[in-house]
């Protein structure tokens, strides 16, 4: 009965998206199966360290003290890490392909790989025009990050609208993610859904969406610090790790909503136990000034990664 209800609700969502022009008839259903499986892994898992541009948001926003993405890439080189996660918020408003190619070549000269990208979006909203704009925005940044050579883009789900039911919200999000992922697949890039509050505040909601998406090039962005409404965020992280295609590491955790320092070794062990291979990006959000704190935390993560090998 649950399968039939899920199919009926999902098909209703598809018809809504088709009517608004977000998807075309028949392009979401190609087989009778629903949902991705945990990602097949090879043993041992291998992780590489990156730094998220969001860690230096106060400097990158408004180019304070000359900070831009080129200087951020230089900073990653100075820290002796191989990756940089570039967030869309800090690109120039008039960004074009020429800028992206120049940044890509700068990364190459510095020996830095673009570990991933990040955008802002809301795939749960009920406003059809806004939903369509967010889908087109996602496709635009898929093109840009593909040109940069990124392998994955972190995306959000959004929040359940006040006057909407959970099944309708969930299925609209699933259908829109499927359309975005099908386009991402043509560009050779993954979309990684983050546990980022809203309908993904708990692993149950996140996984219900993830398991409903039937599309290639899709997985989870494992964010270690974002399960803030549960007593055991480590258990929540363990449940989503098998689906991870990208990982962000924060230095604080919030069990039961209470702030405490993260057990970095335990977080990385969860990824290791899931046989995760890929980037782990420090996303620094704590109160200590980032230029003082980031080198120390990068060193701690390196130490924890070394202890796992």
Topology:
Blueprint (H helix, E strand, L loop, with lengths): L1 H18 L27 E6 L4 H4 L8 H10 L4 E5 L9 H14 L2 E6 L9 H21 L3 E4 L10 H21 L3 E5 L8 H8 L7 E6 L9 H8 L3 E6 L2 E2 L6 E2 L2 H10 L4 E5 L7 H19 L1
Parallel strand pairs: 1-2, 1-10, 2-3, 3-4, 4-5, 5-6, 6-7, 7-10
Antiparallel strand pairs: 8-9
Tell me briefly what this model is:
The protein has helices at 2-19, 57-60, 69-78, 97-110, 128-148, 166-186, 203-210, 233-240, 264-273, 290-308, and strands spanning 47-52, 83-87, 113-118, 152-155, 190-194, 218-223, 244-249, 252-253, 260-261, 278-282.
Describe this protein with a few key phrases:
single chain, 309 residues, alpha/beta, TIM Barrel, eight-stranded parallel beta barrel, two-stranded antiparallel ribbon, 43% helix
Explain what you see.
By secondary structure, this protein is an alpha/beta fold. It has a single domain (46-308), classed as TIM Barrel (Alpha-Beta Barrel). It has ten helices and ten strands. The chain has helices at residues 2-19, 57-60, 69-78, 97-110, 128-148, 166-186, 203-210, 233-240, 264-273, 290-308, and strands at residues 47-52, 83-87, 113-118, 152-155, 190-194, 218-223, 244-249, 252-253, 260-261, 278-282. The strands form two sheets. The chain has an eight-stranded parallel barrel with strand order 1-2-3-4-5-6-7-10, surrounded by six helices. A two-stranded antiparallel sheet has the order 8-9. Helix 3 (69-78) runs parallel beside helix 4. The model is unreliable at 1-16 and 18-34 (pLDDT under 50).
